[in-house]
């Protein structure tokens, strides 16, 4: 038995070496090359207050990447260094060549950070790799100005926009799993969706038909949105589709646990999972004829309202 195990070990080592040798021999052509392409962080916060952001990375290389950690900092100048205030980190692992990935983080700012104006930045840390990073110049990125104040005021509109962006990502992931085309964000549909979410939050109702009797088609007509088109099979199509969801925060929700008000990733996840758990909402989200989407999010202090409009 010992002899058999030893043979297996020898065979495994030989195979592993065969895998490594081409990487060493061909260099950059067969290496991974992770680069940071965007950093979006909330525009304001305070010491010991929540801080949310999104980072996007892409693998510019020619082989799948290993794991690399990205560390986020707030700096008093435009140069990001480890001496700045570290505010969080995310991990990017196993990105295929050409693949783009988003990572969200939610942290708490250190109590030692003084009020002021800061530059947000992110830098790739060390990670396991069979080959050196061929382009270290794309390993760092800055992401705008963050105002740190003495007391925390939640940047609600910014958070609403982040939730909408992540809802789009999750929605297209569900479609991709079923080999359906990605939905394209439509700014005119966004206006219709945002208005309906804000209306539900302001007038305390939850319905596709508002208190004035308007349904989604009525609202689209009022905004002069062209709802007519010809499908690929030659048939005509009129109207827009709509999904809505109402999500409580800062309380336990059955099946989801406690949903934090400052966590756009979790709120967006709950929204899309709720759509996928409801047959008519799932049908609208996955309808092959739908090509465009508008997304609107509003908050009334207790509930998030999210609307998807499709065309």
Q: Can you tag this structure with a few keywords?
A:
311 residues; alpha+beta; 5-stranded mixed β-sheet; 4-stranded mixed β-sheet; 30% helix; globular; disordered N terminus
What does this structure look like?
It comes from Methanospirillum purgamenti. Residues 169-310 form the SCP domain. The structure is a single chain. With 311 residues, this protein is α+β, with helices and mostly antiparallel strands. Helices cover 30% and strands 32% of the residues. α2 packs across α5 (264-277). A hairpin with a 3-residue loop joins β13 and β14. The protein contains six helices and 16 strands. The protein starts with a helix and ends with a strand. The model is unreliable at 1-28 (pLDDT under 50). It has helices at 2-26, 156-177, 187-203, 216-222, 264-277, 279-286; strands at 34-41, 44-45, 50-59, 68-75, 85-92, 100-108, 116-124, 140-148, 184-185, 228-230, 236-238, 241-248, 252-253, 257-258, 292-299, 303-310. The chain is globular, with a radius of gyration of 24 Å. The strands form five sheets. It has a five-stranded mixed beta sheet, with no helix packed on it. Strands 9-15-16-12 form a four-stranded mixed beta sheet. A three-stranded antiparallel beta sheet has the order 1-3-6, with no helix packed on it.
Alpha-beta classification: alpha+beta
**Rounded radius of gyration (Å):** 24 Å
| Biggest sheet descriptor | 5 strands, mixed
Mean pLDDT: 89
Count of DSSP E strands?
16
Strand order of the largest sheet: 2-8-7-4-5
Strand content: 25-35%
Number of helices: 6
How much helix, percentage-wise, in residues?
A: 25-40%
Unreliable stretches (pLDDT < 50, length at least 5) are 1-28
Shape: globular
Q: What is the straight-line distance between the termini? A: 65 Å
Give, in order, the helices and strands.
HEEEEEEEEHEHHEEEEEHHEE
Organism: Methanospirillum purgamenti
Protein name: CAP domain-containing protein
InterPro entries: CAP_dom, CAP_sf
Domain SCP: 169-310
């Amino acid at each position: 038995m010992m002899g058999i195990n030893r043979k297996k070990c020898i065979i495994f080592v030989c195979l592993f070496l065969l895998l490594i040798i081409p990487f060493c021999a061909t260099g950059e052509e067969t290496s991974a090359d992770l680069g940071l392409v965007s950093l979006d962080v909330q525009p304001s916060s305070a010491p010991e207050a929540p801080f949310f952001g999104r980072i996007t990375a892409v693998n510019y290389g020619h082989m799948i990447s290993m794991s690399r950690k990205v560390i986020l900092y707030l700096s008093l100048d435009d140069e990001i260094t480890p001496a700045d205030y570290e505010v969080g980190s995310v991990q990017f692992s196993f990105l295929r060549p050409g693949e783009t990935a988003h990572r969200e983080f939610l942290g708490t700012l250190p109590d030692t950070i003084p009020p002021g104006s800061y530059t947000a930045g992110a830098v790739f840390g060390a990670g396991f790799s069979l080959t050196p990073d061929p382009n270290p110049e794309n390993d760092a990125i800055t992401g705008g100005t963050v105002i740190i104040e003495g007391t925390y005021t939640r940047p609600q509109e910014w958070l609403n926009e982040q939730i909408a962006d992540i809802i789009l990502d999750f929605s297209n992931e569900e479609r991709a799993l079923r080999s359906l085309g990605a939905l394209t964000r439509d700014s005119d549909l966004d206006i219709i969706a945002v208005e309906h979410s804000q209306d539900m939050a302001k007038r305390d109702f939850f319905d596709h038909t508002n208190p004035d009797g308007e349904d989604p088609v009525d609202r689209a007509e009022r905004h002069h949105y062209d709802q007519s088109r010809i499908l690929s099979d030659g048939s005509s199509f009129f109207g827009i589709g709509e999904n809505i969801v109402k999500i409580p925060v800062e309380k336990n929700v059955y099946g989801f646990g406690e949903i934090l008000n400052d966590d756009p990733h979790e709120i967006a996840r709950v929204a899309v999972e709720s759509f996928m758990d409801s047959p008519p909402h799932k049908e609208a989200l996955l309808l092959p004829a739908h090509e465009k989407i508008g997304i609107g999010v509003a908050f009334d202090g207790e509930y998030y309202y999210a609307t998807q409009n499709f065309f």
